[in-house]
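Before the break, one more example. Copy the sequence into your notebook; we will annotate it together after we see the structure.
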Amino acid sequence: MKRHSQYLILLTMSLLLGGCGWNTLPEMRSEAQAPFNELMTQYRLRADVVLMLARWAEKEFPEASKSLNESRSQALSIELGFNTYDERQVHRFQSFQNFVSRDMAQLIRQVESKGQGADPDFQSLKGQFQRLDQKLILMKRKYLTLARDFNQQTKKFPHSIYNKWKHHLQPLPEVGIVAQKTGK
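Here is what the structure looks like once it is written out:
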């Protein structure tokens, strides 16, 4: 009889916990990990294209090239991790990415104002950069939606209790927010 009641309690608890969102936070977190990793990969690809453009511009536009290389180096100096959340690092990362965009736009304006915008190498690299930027915008939106949903769920009942009691999950970095706040 005692064993039967233990099974009944176990069955009842599993039915109750099965539909209450016990695993919602870990599932949401793992759903956001692939877009985060892809976003970081795209930022690295963008940095590679920026390097090629800076090298292309070295002879004719040394100041712009130097500035672009410096902002690229700063952007690459910050590595965001999916499992470690540091709001200051996220802010610095996005600020440095904004500097890369600013310096890139400045180089493009200079090249085109000097009449060298038709160079096939420049056009190819500029096109790659612009396509990567567009892809980054879409990927940031997708990831930010997932990260914000996760971060909000960690604050809601009963998920906040589950997280404190069992999961101990940190918030996800909200990459891209700085760019939206600064209007870029």
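The two ends are 68 Å apart (CA to CA). Confidence is low (pLDDT under 50) at residues 178-184. Try to locate both features in your own notes.
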